[in-house]
């Protein structure tokens, strides 16, 4: 099981230096992260939206150590929103944010994160789009859900993410499905202990289906975050049974993974949103992409061997 090893490496400064220094790393990282700043990413947004795809934009970076960095993260999203405005894409281009970027782990971090994320949610609403709060490790979730609930008082379209591998998530899904909120379901990509999370892939898949059924049968708007063909087919069947039309839910996949499937689903009339990350602080995001799927790791290793 290489996944836990890779996730541990994502927190290692030594591994960060080693991988960042490898000559081949940038061209491999570019598969998942198509730019370092907003000037790089605007053409990508135009290209994907021109192909009938929707986007959720993530400015990568989680290692925030002081309030000034958290404010800079806020400003990076505000700059993105400013650049999105003339494109007039509305909800076809939304934002995903990690509250750790907004200072959640700092002293008085809950209040600081809420203070920093609120202007981003407000600015997004002004251009006709919205924000989804990404889930991080289990210790941050009570704070994330509380901020989500607070933001939805004024911006009910604010979304959140839940992770199938956590034991708590079935209860979270029942609560969120009843509230009419936008909920993205993913398997989970953090190293979590056996006391709080399933460790076996089959158990995680079964939990994913149970939770997805709850979301499809509820009053909210499900967002299916998966590249797994079997789970995608199950999601379509569950949606059909629940009487949902394609516009009543959406699929979400990562930029650079199964791009042909993005186009296939969009061509069939489904809402297909591409999670598109950009920025210079890419290391943690990149390592989780490797940990999620063995094929990603093989792709990186092969590139290191043949081009390094």
Regarding quaternary structure, how should these chains be classified?
single chain
**Biggest sheet: strand arrangement:** 1-2-3-4-5-6-7-8
Q: How much β-strand is present in the residues?
A: 5-15%
Distance between the termini: 25 Å
Mean pLDDT: 88
Amount of helix: 40-55%
For the sheet with most strands, the description reads: 8 strands, parallel, barrel
Counting helices, strands and paired strands, the structural category is alpha/beta
Radius of gyration: 18 Å
From the spread of the alpha carbons, the general shape counts as globular
Poorly predicted parts: 303-308
Order of helices and strands: HHHHEHEHEHEHEHEHEHEHH
Number of helices: 13
Number of strands: 8
Written account of the structure:
The chain has 308 residues and is of the alpha/beta class. 53% of the residues lie in helices and 13% in strands. It has helices at 2-9, 13-21, 25-32, 38-50, 67-84, 109-126, 141-154, 169-179, 201-217, 229-241, 259-267, 283-292, 294-307, and strands spanning 54-59, 93-97, 131-133, 159-163, 182-186, 221-225, 250-254, 272-278. The chain has an eight-stranded parallel beta barrel with strand order 1-2-3-4-5-6-7-8, surrounded by seven helices. The longest helix is centred in the N-terminal third of the chain and has 18 residues, at 67-84. It is globular and about 45 Å long. Residues 303-308 have low confidence and may be disordered.
